TrEMBL record:
<keyword id="KW-0413">Isomerase</keyword>
<feature type="domain" description="Alpha-D-phosphohexomutase C-terminal">
    <location>
        <begin position="403"/>
        <end position="466"/>
    </location>
</feature>
<dbReference type="InterPro" id="IPR005846">
    <property type="entry name" value="A-D-PHexomutase_a/b/a-III"/>
</dbReference>
<dbReference type="InterPro" id="IPR005841">
    <property type="entry name" value="Alpha-D-phosphohexomutase_SF"/>
</dbReference>
<protein>
    <submittedName>
        <fullName>Phosphoglucosamine mutase</fullName>
    </submittedName>
</protein>
<dbReference type="GO" id="GO:0008966">
    <property type="term" value="F:phosphoglucosamine mutase activity"/>
</dbReference>
<feature type="domain" description="Alpha-D-phosphohexomutase alpha/beta/alpha">
    <location>
        <begin position="174"/>
        <end position="265"/>
    </location>
</feature>
<dbReference type="InterPro" id="IPR036900">
    <property type="entry name" value="A-D-PHexomutase_C_sf"/>
</dbReference>
<keyword id="KW-0597">Phosphoprotein</keyword>
<dbReference type="GO" id="GO:0005975">
    <property type="term" value="P:carbohydrate metabolic process"/>
</dbReference>
<dbReference type="Pfam" id="PF00408">
    <property type="entry name" value="PGM_PMM_IV"/>
</dbReference>
<dbReference type="InterPro" id="IPR005843">
    <property type="entry name" value="A-D-PHexomutase_C"/>
</dbReference>
<keyword id="KW-0460">Magnesium</keyword>
<dbReference type="InterPro" id="IPR050060">
    <property type="entry name" value="Phosphoglucosamine_mutase"/>
</dbReference>
<keyword id="KW-0479">Metal-binding</keyword>
<dbReference type="InterPro" id="IPR016055">
    <property type="entry name" value="A-D-PHexomutase_a/b/a-I/II/III"/>
</dbReference>
<feature type="domain" description="Alpha-D-phosphohexomutase alpha/beta/alpha">
    <location>
        <begin position="276"/>
        <end position="380"/>
    </location>
</feature>
Length: 471
């Protein structure tokens, strides 16, 4: 199985991986310079080094097998790849920006289990390729043979050096209160999911004077459920609560470390939606901003927070690149997605768990309040997220039924308004509730997400959409 979207290419690892890697990397190599010409026209295009492509991997076991195949393709197409080994996806993004590279490739399947792997493609702006740019690349796949035993020659720097460059750049933001964090000497728990987050946490702890309690700290086989959602973090909670000394806060990241979920000082996982909300609250309390940007499946707690600070919330289609492009257009400083993905334009326009951790610790240091108190101050809503597997051959029928949801709003004109930037979202502003149905960009599933003031309201909304789409 191969899933190719603007979130990258993901595949279940098998003995055909070499062919798939060569085909997609070759298509990227043939088109990235032209994409760069269009992307950066009039935007310091002369600074771009069109020979350099930054390459990294997330640390999952199978990712090492992909490295030489990716590098060899790039070398064969005349590029000078710079390999940075096991680092977070945002580290590759940061290096693309700072080294003015023409693009980047991250070998990762993000939060997918360890038997998956894949490729994420970056342009010279350090953003993921847009949907239109992905059509160009994916539309240029050609029949190619796998390499027998590639041994590419290329420049390499250590993951430690790459991470130092990344972290040091993030810490330059005036929103990151380095000295105040250092003075607090916070004790944090960190769940690295046995992947790339473990590459940066020692250095981040050193520069921020953090006491560190580590879990899933070896880079290698991933946990069975590597997506950092509250329901997957029970073992992390048990680990924290088994310790003799308490912590101030905990963080869990996904394998490529662009998403971050918070755990409070008692070990209780915090709803992943609130990572972004806490960061939005902190940034707007420190800086007068006109806009914040979120995807249309993210919590309306962000809307409430923005209104309280005189800012406007802007919604986009789901997908990091959609949020990032809108942030760039609006010159917005803060944005992200409700899955724990925080974007701070001071650093780069990509989700970044290092950014999330630095902003949360800054908020704690500035407010002199524990994380549980800050969480309790957030607007209170219930969010329920459901997912449904489907036969890809039935996609067109499901799409038709989603389109028919629009007639539901026409029959209830005083109840819901409709948003169709990604699937169908029905919003009842007066009652502070909504429900959103869409196809996943990364898995063969349909997602239905509802948010309201009570669980019963969420269940009713989800049931209503289930009945209309699946029956």
């Amino acid at each position: 199985m191969i899933i190719a979207t603007f979130s990258g290419v993901r595949m279940i690892h098998n003995d055909q991986y070499q062919i798939h890697v060569r085909r997609y990397t070759s298509a990227f190599s043939r088109n990235i310079k032209q994409i760069a010409d269009v992307q950066e026209r009039g935007q310091l295009a002369s600074q771009i080094n069109k020979n350099i492509v930054i390459v990294g991997r997330d640390g999952r076991e199978v990712s090492q097998q992909y490295v030489d195949h990716v590098l060899q393709v790039l070398v064969d197409h005349g590029f000078k790849p710079l390999y940075v080994d096991t680092v977070p996806t945002p580290t590759v993004q940061q290096l693309v920006q700072l080294k003015h590279a023409v693009g980047g490739i991250v070998i990762t399947a993000s939060h997918n289990p360890g038997n998956w792997c894949g490729l994420k493609f970056l342009g010279p702006s350090s953003l993921f390729l847009s949907p239109d740019e992905c059509q160009i690349v994916y539309g240029d796949l050609q029949n190619e043979e796998a390499y027998d035993n590639p041994k590419p020659e290329c420049d390499r720097i250590s993951s430690e050096e790459a991470i130092k460059i990344h972290v040091d750049h993030v810490l330059k933001s005036n929103l990151v209160k380095v000295q105040q964090i250092r003075d607090c000497n916070f004790k944090i728990a960190f769940n690295g999911m046995c992947a790339s987050g473990n590459a940066y946490i020692p250095y981040l702890a050193e520069v921020l004077n953090l006491q560190l309690l580590r879990y899933n700290s070896n880079i290698g086989p991933l946990p069975q459920k590597p997506e950092p959602t509250p329901q997957n973090l029970q073992d992390f909670k048990d680990f924290i609560q088994s310790q003799k000394s308490s912590i101030d806060v905990g963080f869990a990241v996904d394998p490529d470390a662009d998403r971050c979920v918070i755990v409070d000082q008692f070990g209780e996982p915090v709803l992943e939606e609130l990572t972004l909300s806490l960061c939005v609250e902190y940034v707007l309390s420190q800086s007068a901003e006109q806009f914040a940007v979120k995807n249309c499946s993210s919590s309306m707690s962000n809307d409430v927070i923005c209104r309280s600070h005189g800012a406007k919330i802007i919604e986009t289609a789901v997908g990091e690149v959609n949020v990032a492009l809108r942030m760039r257009e609006l010159n917005a400083r803060i944005g992200g997605e409700g899955n724990g993905g925080v974007i701070l334009s001071d650093a780069h326009l990509g989700r970044d768990s290092i950014v999330a951790i630095c902003l949360i610790l800054s908020y704690m240091a500035v407010s002199h309040q524990p994380i549980s108190t800050l969480v309790n101050k957030m607007p209170k809503f219930t969010v329920i997220k459901e997912k449904y597997e489907f036969d890809p051959q039935n996609r067109s029928n499901l799409l038709l039924k989603m389109e028919q949801l629009k007639s539901f709003t026409e029959n209830h004109p005083n109840q819901f308004r409709i948003l169709t930037v990604d699937g169908v979202k029905l919003i009842y502003d007066e009652k502070l509730k909504w429900v959103h149905v869409r196809f996943s960009n990364t898995e063969p599933i349909v997602r239905i997400i509802a948010e309201a003031q009570t669980e019963n309201e969420c269940r009713e909304l989800i049931k209503k959409v289930e009945d209309l789409v699946f029956k």
